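Minutes, project check-in
Item: structure for the 290-residue chain
Input as provided by the requester:
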Amino acid sequence: MLADVADTSTEGRFAWRSAGERMQRTYGAGRLALGTRDGLTVIRECYQEAGIRIRMPRVEPGEPLEAVVINTAGGITGGDRFVLDIKAGPATRAVVTTQAAEKVYRSSGGIGFFDTSITVAAGADFAWLPQEAILFDGSALERRLTVDMDAGASVLAVESVVFGRLARGERVDHAYLFDRWRIRRGGRLVYAEGLRFEGGVADALKGRACGAGAVAAASLVLVAPDAEGRVEAVRALLEQFHARGVEAGVSGFDGLLSLRLLSPDPFALRTALMNILVLLRGPVPRVWSC
């Protein structure tokens, strides 16, 4: 149920889900290119098509540029496809986030795809901080994050997922999730992972070695010259969340910090994640607090 997998096609792998009727699907594409002018980060290109919109809230002078990606369809279901391409030019400072938690609805057939490609140039400081994806029972999502960064850049990336809405007593008995990360620094692969859930998610998450009853999970990676030197500070911060049921593991090596979070309480996990982001980069995007 839970595995580190290769980059393989996942179409047509849902024997446990009825095919259903063919329905209209949603498509969205966005491109964002950033540069500098007079020492400030500015927009060089902003393209948006169909179901994706990109908005730039006003920030205080000296703060990184902030961009908010909006899915106008209100969620993702089987057969939907979204593509996002971001280029952060030399010496830019920016954070890209999403308007709200992404709801992944039950699929009547097929997989929903969201592919994000990020290129970060020398001297740039970039953060990819989308809010969590909430998977509904019977949903199917394939999410891919590809980062190509210069050896002199800094990147902070987060992806999180919640299986069902706890306040509504929802249980995700069957779903599909494939989460793929690839980060290259100076052309060299420095981080790769593939996470797959398929079929009986709730039963798999009960297992001690898999989720130990967790319904929310998050991965965070910081690639920066001082990344590994910040591991102890993150560990110290996480101690206060252990009593709230947040299990965490963090390690650092070769200019990279990697963190995993698990919790049976999505709000506790989100709170812990927000505190870690504040520690690592400063205030979280304002939409995280709305």
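Outcome recorded: Residues 144 and 209 are 25 Å apart (CA to CA).
No further action items on this chain.
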